[in-house]
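STRUCTURE REQUEST FORM
Protein name: Lactase isoform X1
Source organism: Labeo rohita
Requested output: structure tokens
Priority: standard
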Amino acid sequence: MMLSHRVGRACHVLVLVLCLSAAEDFDWSANNHDSFYYGTFPNGFSWGAGSSAYQTEGAWDKDGKGLSIWDVFTHKKGKTFLNDTGDSSCEGYYRIKDDISLMKELNLNHYRFSISWPRIMPTGIRSDHVNEKGVKYYNALINELLEHNITPIVTLYHWDLPQVLQEKYGGWQNISMINYFNDFANLCFERYGDRVKHWITFNNPWSVAVEGYETGEHAPGLKLRGTGAYRAAHHIIKAHAKVWHTYDTQWRKKQKGMVGISLSGDWGEPVDISNQKDIEAAERYVQFYIGWFATPIFHGDYPQVMKDFIGVGHFTTRYITQKSFPFNRGSTYFSDRDVAELVDPRWPDPGSEWLYSVPWGFRRLLNFIKTQYGNPMIFITENGVSEKMLCTELCDDWRIQYYKDYINEMLKAIRDGVNVKGYTAWSLLDKFEWDEGYSERFGLYYVDFRNKNKPRYPKASVQFYKRIIRFNGFPNQREVEIWKRKATETCSTSNQLLAADPLTSHMEMVTEVVVPTVCTLCILISAVVLMFLLRKRN
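Status: completed
Returned output:
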């Protein structure tokens, strides 16, 4: 649904009543969405990139790994785009040194990755079996990162539940998952905690609960409308709490690390700021998203020391208005929150259908978290943009613009007093994108999935992000403009490298022109074919 320009002009002010009354140091009514701030981040700010196990590792059945719910889900026809799977993906399981060399090229301070639960516990149950080959793989990854002065930030659960736990107990619908997950986390602390000091229990539990157990779009693909999402979320919150206490009582004194959770949240702005129902709807939107998980942790009965840090994944924003679902349609997560989401037709949307570039919403979300939850320590654990196109394009100027604008809004938020300590670009590599398969690409590095060697090629955004890291921000307008120009120049060379790949590596797909797979050439060939067809008709 698209907004009219009249409505769009009315929506450049604030959002939630609670923020209006509480955030005295942030001007919610200011209309400065297009302003850019030149300056640098605090000393010690950490820059990184991220990935997850199922999306990048491949080796789905190698070296004793057990089945995950995503292995089973993707092997069922019709569950993902073109029936794609993560069976091989980026082959990251075999490319530790290669990928860390890419991180060194970027000068990353940290790398965020996840541990596959079924890779080190094939059934998900510690007493059944611990797969030492899987343990060895993550030891090698952690050691290689540290050898290159890259801090590992480790996610314990990035959606790949062991299939045995789903089949025997119903997965996150069952309270027994709390103890099983705690056993898995305890093993990770035991084996890796001497070197890993930043732990994330869950990545985006909203998606696990809603898309896994309410809509069925994600593994395990259940549609338990009205109950499934809430039950899964409740158990996930309790599992996070139990793991935090386990670390605190058994490991913190010796290992001196931190345990947090990564919550994803879109920002919601009321369509009409003079309409109380729209204001309340926007508040519900945010609360049903990030507040669902953050409020029990920060406003529940948990002790203050339990709030080590919060990871924030953020990609986009929506305008929000009251929807008024009919009462006779039954209760679901979406009818419960009772909102309609709108987008402005002027917002850029280069890739995922849900991902519009709305940088100013990022600053607002961060200030909301500051106000609502006592200004906790924040690590940005996911932020990035995809592209969706048939042919390769390494000159990703839209991604450069996205990173430039979103990172700048984060810098403004830090100036507002928000306690942001680090930023993770999502993602290091193109990878398997869940139900969208390989049709969307978030990576700073392009991965040629048709080539069995899965070669990586730098996009222009690599050079741009690398300079942000080197200068720890945006020193001045002239410098930043030079960065963009140089990034575009280098991507042209990368395009030539990709086009020069051997013909045999591109012979697997016969339904499209793939050699060389450079977008400008694809467009040229399409134009020639179109001219031929038109001439033939005449």
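Reviewer notes: Residues 1-24, 502-538 have pLDDT under 50 and may be disordered. Residues 276-299 form the longest helix (24 residues).
Form closed.
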